[in-house]
């Protein structure tokens, strides 16, 4: 069985013209020769993936994340190119953000070999390390440099790749005679170490120099006391004890183990042990949104009356067809006189009047006579046109003067059908009124349903959403006794009202779950009640507690206490980098959504960050849940002209808040709302859109100039400035 290898060429030039790539084919040939030279054909390499991307960090990371997934089973990824000193050489930075376990020995070996050949090797910036169960090594872009660097480490790589199969180091290191054929990938049979048996003591003399203290019980009966600080201490990330201080006592009673003090109890605060680097890879916003949508549940269907206020904003789950013609009789469009069109102008006696009424009689009019009709009234049989009252004149009246007797028709060229609504001309029986997936947005649409006698419709149920804030520093803006004075370090909670109002703006009705303090137990209790309680939530949205602070408990509570799955914990965007998305199995008491899960959005604590993440990620998911089509999930994207220069972030796409307006020439223009600090909710004042600013790395420039065009995502009304 072979180790699967992926070769990723990083080059702007080759991404545009793959025929320019020489390094990829050179490495493929190199691996072919390695396999042919191998003494064991079942233990070699198989190049299973190749790709070429531009010098863009997001493209590099997208491939690495995909290839290092369990489904691909690629054990070794080699990147080629982008490791130098030019502005576009960003491969080491892109790879480093994803690596969880660096491999400095591989880097050292490659640099050492390169320096033997050229002094210019000091300008190389290779990176190596593990992503999941995949080893990633960055190589130079030239065919020769790539082969030489890989050749410097290839002789021992099989052992490194074999270790990625195992959870502990004991099996691999009981035998120290390491070779290329220590173990086979995917094999449970390893030749790296033999299990101890009753005839051979694990701690025998021949093994003592390299035992690495894997909790073997050594019985040393020395007559002196000394400390063995073994210099061969190898940390293999397993659960074995690596302390090599052996105490050999005079009492001849063997090894004495003592209970170690708890570090927290000894006065060492837990905060010093928290991670200094996020374990979550940095995803592009597009990839994060795709993950969110893939994990959004299908909506539930319910029946609702057209008089229910909840119908506005609801999505129809199935099409609606007209059960009748509208109108269901020939109706006059105007107030006037029903005539026979061929009679022409002249004075005609009035036969009768036809008014709009639920009890109208079916009557007819003959040539030479006319009938007075009102708007919406049935047109009598025999008449084929209606002349407006403005095109007539009363010649004489009946006795009493209340009714006309004879009327002059002045209109010429009257044609059949003039001013008459034919049956079914507005809506024919069986015609589709609304398609499945249509969103009811206004009262006129409800009126259309009523016009054909439809009283109930089938819609997708709107999501049940809970919103809460976390933080010891927060003060509820709606406190009973409210004054504007705050304690030192205290702030009013602006996140909940902001997020709740945004949700209402988009037609949702969230539930306010108040504030939860930075207490892990209280947080777990509140979240568990929200997820599994009687509220029957489909979505839980929190703000705060998702970064790297000592009281940021959201992520560990989701994983360790709620048994949730965190799909991502960082996004390459500004603001909103620590935005987290998880799914949690729920056990609602009322059984709703019993076979599904709850979508958990843990948004940043900075107000502007939370609102931007809400608009970019939460709203599309909510829209999908309630049944909107894929093309309608995101905010509307439009092109605008910039009113001022906009500086680009070096590596992250940025979403500053802007006011889009129509200028005097009818063009759409975007103007910044001021300082864009992530904590400044004031940046939403007058804002009606988010401006999408690509990163400097993506555009290869640092500023978008005034007058240049850019894309905005609209969430408010656009009008003149």
Automatic annotation (TrEMBL):
Cellular component GO terms held in the UniProt record: cytosol
InterPro entries referenced in this protein's UniProt entry, alphabetically: MoaB/Mog-like_dom_sf, MoaB/Mog_dom, MoCF_biosynth_CS, MoeA-like, MoeA_C_domain_IV, MoeA_C_domain_IV_sf, MoeA_linker/N, MoeA_linker/N_sf
Keyword Metal-binding appears in the UniProt entry: yes
Spans annotated as Disordered: 180-252
Listed transmembrane segments: none
Keyword annotations from UniProtKB, A to Z: Magnesium, Metal-binding, Molybdenum, Molybdenum cofactor biosynthesis, Transferase
NCBIfam families: molyb_syn (TIGR00177)
Name listed for the protein in its UniProt record: DEBR0S7_00188g1_1
């Amino acid at each position: 069985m072979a180790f699967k290898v992926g070769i990723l060429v990083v080059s702007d030039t080759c991404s545009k013209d793959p025929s320019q790539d020489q390094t990829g084919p050179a490495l493929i040939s190199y691996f072919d020769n390695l396999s042919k030279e191998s003494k064991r054909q079942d233990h070699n390499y198989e190049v299973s993936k190749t790709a070429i991307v531009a010098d863009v960090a997001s493209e590099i990371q997208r491939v690495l994340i995909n290839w290092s997934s369990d489904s691909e089973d690629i054990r070794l990824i080699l990147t080629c190119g982008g490791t130098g000193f030019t502005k576009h050489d960003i491969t080491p930075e892109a790879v480093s953000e994803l690596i969880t376990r660096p491999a400095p020995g591989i880097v050292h070996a490659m640099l050492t070999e390169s320096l033997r050949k050229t002094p210019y090797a000091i300008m190389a910036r290779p990176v190596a390390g593990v992503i999941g169960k995949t080893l990633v090594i960055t190589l130079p872009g030239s065919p020769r440099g790539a082969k030489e660097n890989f050749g410097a480490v290839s002789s021992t790589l099989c052992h490194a790749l074999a270790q990625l199969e195992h959870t502990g180091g004991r099996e691999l290191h009981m035998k120290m005679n390491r070779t290329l054929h220590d173990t086979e990938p995917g094999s449970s049979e390893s030749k790296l170490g033999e299990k101890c048996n009753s005839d051979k003591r694990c701690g025998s003399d021949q093994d003592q120099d390299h035992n690495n203290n894997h909790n073997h019980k050594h019985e040393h009966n020395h007559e002196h006391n000394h400390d063995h600080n073994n210099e061969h201490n190898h940390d293999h990330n397993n659960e074995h004890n690596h302390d090599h201080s052996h105490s050999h006592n005079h009492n001849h009673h063997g090894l004495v183990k003592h209970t170690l003090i708890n570090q927290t109890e000894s006065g060492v605060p837990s905060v010093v042990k928290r991670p200094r680097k996020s374990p979550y890879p940095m995803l592009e916003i597009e990839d994060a949104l795709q993950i969110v949508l893939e994990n959004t549940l299908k909506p539930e269907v319910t029946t609702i009356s057209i008089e229910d206020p909840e119908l506005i904003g609801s999505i129809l789950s199935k099409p609606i067809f007209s059960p009748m013609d509208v109108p269901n009789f020939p109706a006059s469009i105007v107030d006037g006189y029903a005539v026979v069109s061929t009679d022409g102008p002249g004075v005609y006696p009035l036969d009768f009047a036809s008014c709009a009424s639920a009890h109208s009689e079916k009557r007819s009019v003959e040539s030479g006579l006319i009938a007075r009709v009102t708007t919406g009234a049935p047109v009598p049989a025999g008449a084929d046109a209606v002349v407006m009252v403005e095109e007539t004149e009363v010649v004489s009246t009946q006795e009493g003067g209340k009714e006309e007797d004879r009327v002059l028709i002045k209109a010429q060229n009257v044609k059949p059908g003039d001013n008459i609504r034919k049956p079914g001309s507005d809506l024919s029986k069986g015609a589709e009124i609304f398609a499945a997936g249509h969103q009811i947005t206004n009262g006129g649409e409800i009126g259309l349903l009523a016009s054909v006698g439809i009283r109930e419709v089938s819609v997708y149920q709107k999501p049940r959403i809970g919103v809460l804030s976390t933080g010891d520093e927060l003060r509820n803006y709606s406190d009973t006794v409210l004054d504007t004075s705050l304690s030192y370090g205290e702030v009013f909670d602006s996140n909940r009202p902001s997020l709740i109002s945004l949700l209402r703006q988009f037609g949702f009705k969230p539930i306010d779950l108040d504030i939860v303090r930075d207490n892990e137990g209280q947080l777990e209790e509140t979240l568990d009640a929200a997820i599994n309680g009687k509220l029957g939530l489909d979505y839980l949205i929190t703000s705060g507690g998702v970064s790297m602070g000592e009281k940021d408990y959201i992520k560990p509570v989701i994983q360790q206490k709620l048994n949730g799955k965190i799909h991502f914990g960082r996004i390459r965007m500004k603001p909103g980098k620590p935005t987290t998305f998880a799914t949690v199995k729920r056990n609602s008491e009322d059984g709703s959504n019993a076979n599904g899960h709850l979508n958990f959005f843990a948004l940043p604590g900075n107000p502007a960050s939370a609102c931007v993440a809400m608009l970019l990620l939460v709203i599309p998911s909510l829209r999908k849940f309630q049944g909107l089509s894929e093309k309608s999930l995101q905010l509307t994207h439009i092109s605008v002209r910039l009113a001022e220069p906009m500086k680009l972030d070096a590596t992250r796409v940025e979403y500053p808040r802007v006011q889009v307006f129509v200028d005097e020439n009818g063009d759409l223009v975007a103007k910044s709302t001021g300082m864009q600090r992530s904590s400044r909710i004031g940046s939403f004042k007058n804002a009606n859109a988010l401006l999408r600013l690509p990163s400097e790395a993506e555009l290869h420039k640092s500023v978008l100039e005034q007058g240049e065009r850019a894309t905005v995502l609209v969430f408010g009304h656009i009008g003149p400035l």
